[in-house]
Amino acid sequence: MKQVKIAGQQVPAMGIGTWHMGERPAQRETEIAAIQAGISAGARVVDTAEMYGSGKSENLVGEALKPFKREDIFLISKVLPENASQRRMEASLDASLQRLRTDYLDLYLYHWRGSVPLSETVAELQRLQTTGKIRSWGVSNFDIADLQELWALPGGDQAVANEDLYHLGSRGLDYAVLPWQRDHDLPLIAYSPIAQGDSWGHHLTTTPIVQQIAQAHHATIYQVLLAWVVRHPQVLAIPQTSSVAHMEQNIAAADLTLSATELAALDQQFPAPTSKQPLDIL
């Protein structure tokens, strides 16, 4: 299974996203079973946020992780921009830890930029790391200019990851962000790596070349899309599903390697940008 090194730890390149999970009581047991199936299939990274369902996702994740050893899980959550200040961040983190039933996060991400000065947010993230409540910190929804600004700040280069939207139909990161992150040894966490099942009109699942590659590998279309995302050595994908079967297929996609010919065919159908693109955000 492909691995990514993040915050000094080697983890499988396929993790578990939890956006939209925990919001429907009738789905709770199904969603818990899916998360647990993903971990049992080899996933270590579980990604959530205080924003997701206003804490309901964190609560669900906390329950789902109970059967597992805490040290076997790489747990990520995120702080909202309005809570990313020196005055509010620690209380926000404490609430996340309580919902997650843990006393530390492996990685705490600044969810997206708001009105709090970035220098203040970075200083508070650095301070919280010294308390042991977070083992490392990073950012999310940062574009190239944001990353460059971050790196110029005291302690800014201590960020261990950036989480952005990235999939075959949204390749803006290929122009500047991914090359910059590779040069600075900053892993990418790719959210919505299968374009939310084509709900945004990218037609990835109905494109003949994607279907042909899936058939050649006896894989699902979604596995091909995920394998494409993690073709880079320092990219971690966090697909979300409430289905046990789909979860197991997602995790197995980390073992699928696309050939140079297949990657070239996908590039032809979904070309990388030749100029700077606006950062895609959901």
TrEMBL record:
InterPro entries: AKR, NAD(P)_OxRdtase_dom_sf, NADP_OxRdtase_dom. Substrate binds at H111. Pfam families: Aldo_ket_red. Residues 14-268 form the NADP-dependent oxidoreductase domain. The active site is at Y52. The record marks K78 as: Lowers pKa of active site Tyr. GO terms for molecular function: oxidoreductase activity. This is NADP-dependent oxidoreductase domain-containing protein. It comes from Levilactobacillus koreensis.
